[in-house]
Amino acid sequence: MDDKKNQEKEKQKKEKQDRIDHELDKKGDESTEKDETTDKSHGDILKEQIMQGCETYDRSGSSIFLSSITAGLEIGFSFLMILALFSFLEAKLAEDVIFKLISLVYPLGFILVILGQSILFTEQTALLTLPVLNKKRSIYSLFKIWGIVIFGNLIGGMLIAFTLIWLGPRLDIFDEHAIAAIGEHVVDFPLMTVLVSGILAGWLMGLLSWLLTSAKDTVSQIIMIFLITGMMAFTGLHHSIIGNIEIFAGMLVSSKISFTDYVYVESMAILGNAIGGAVFVALLKYRAFVFNVKMP
């Protein structure tokens, strides 16, 4: 009797999934028939996001890892501009004002990474979760690819941190005081605060990925990246990848930042970013579509 009930449940699940896939395919067919001036629907964007996520899964591990290192390196240009701006304004403005103005240069690295198609963990979190929700990929494959991307992003960030710590003082752009000030500012919060802050940052980055899929031109994409990442910087939300560079570099030059601080804060930021993107974007956007799918 139990076996029969289980079989019936599995049959219903399969029928439901087939119906969801049918609706997504229909949305995809409809979107190809629309002209470029027509706004994309929720289903259109979801279909494209799932397809983009699957394309990343289909890449080789070496390709993903190299692209992730590249993203970690490229986002370091945001850190370069942050340090340059901080040093330039330090004697002219109050420190709290400078941290707000940093939001004007913070988006640069994100623009380079995202438009350059390098793989950034926070921008890919929701994107890689959607194929799992749609049963196109397994939860194991999700955690595996997350691990590769995070590791690559962190390695790239550490490499650019070493480079900038060496280069900045020699070019007289900034000194170790600026590096320490930025790092200490990022870690100066309780871990629970970092976690919740990371969730909001991951949520915003997941939304950014969603919005970029709906954008029709590069200018619109740049504006979206600038607004979303600028908001993160202005409010001080914790982004695990650029935060990795800020804290790691600060740890190398400041006695106030220990390796334990680096590990704890970075871990909370990564966890928060993952939750924000996977739950508050991927899951909610996917379920909103699924709940509207009617069985025949």
From TrEMBL:
Signal peptide: none annotated. Residues 1-42 are annotated as: Disordered. It is found in: Membrane. It is a multi-pass membrane protein. InterPro entries: Aquaporin-like, For/NO2_transpt. Keywords: Membrane, Transmembrane, Transmembrane helix. The chain crosses the membrane at residues 64-89, 101-121, 142-169, 189-210, 222-242, 262-284. This is Formate/nitrite transporter family protein. The lineage of its organism: Bacteria, Pseudomonadati, Bacteroidota, Flavobacteriia, Flavobacteriales.
